Amino acid sequence: xxxxxxxxxxxxxxxxxxxxxxxxxxxxxxxxxxxxxxxxxxxxxxxxxxxxxxxxxxxxxxxxxxxxxxxxxxxxxxxxxxxxxxxxxxxxxxxxxxxxxxxxxxxxxxxxxxxxxxxxxxxxxxxxxxxxxxxxxxxxxxxxxxxxxxxxxxxxxxxxxxxxxxxxxxxxxxxxxxxxxxxxxxxxxxxxxxxxxxxxxxxxxxxxxxxxxxxxxxxxxxxxxxxxxxxxxxxxxxxx
Length: 240
Prior knowledge:
Layout (H helix, E strand, L loop, with lengths): L1 H21 L22 E6 L10 E6 L6 H7 L3 E3 L6 E4 L2 E3 L3 E7 L2 E2 L14 E8 L11 E7 L9 E6 L6 H7 L3 E3 L6 E4 L8 E7 L2 E2 L14 E8 L1
Parallel strand pairs: 1-8, 5-10, 9-15
Antiparallel strand pairs: 1-2, 3-4, 4-5, 6-7, 6-8, 9-10, 11-12, 13-14, 13-15
């Protein structure tokens, strides 16, 4: 009897060991911790806004530069690659291909405050916004769109370096010839009837200058045409 009980106990122990060995693994995995979101700190910048208004939209743009400690406003303007200063560096000669007549000039604002050229060497701060716009000489008011005339000079594929746009303040009774002479780069013959050169370039025998007003070609004698506010004159070098 005792041997039988002992055998039953041993058998039960073996069954328990077998059941434990065959049981599925119930190891509880720890929940994965959420990954830490890495945010890269953006470097401080300076913004340069150039406003050509609706009259010269090609020059309108917004540029952003990384801020560097000690940078001055003049350096920021030069780094744009489109702002060109006069020889004495006291005024802006042109922005892109756009120049202004003697009655107009490029104004500069810093954070909505107008700055004279004497303040263009002041250091900038991170986040500063520079604004360049067209204004009347001696005034901080932008020119009205209705009071402007536009002269576009296009050297075509043979002389692309002649490309230039001149913004002029409108004056009553201004003719096409007046506008060309006012640019300072168009030279006429003695009688002011024939264009001799533009910015020093004299056309070859196979070339000639053509004139358009508001994209319509002028016929002979058209240089005496009186212009209206917002008129655009194009002087283009073409092959005969």
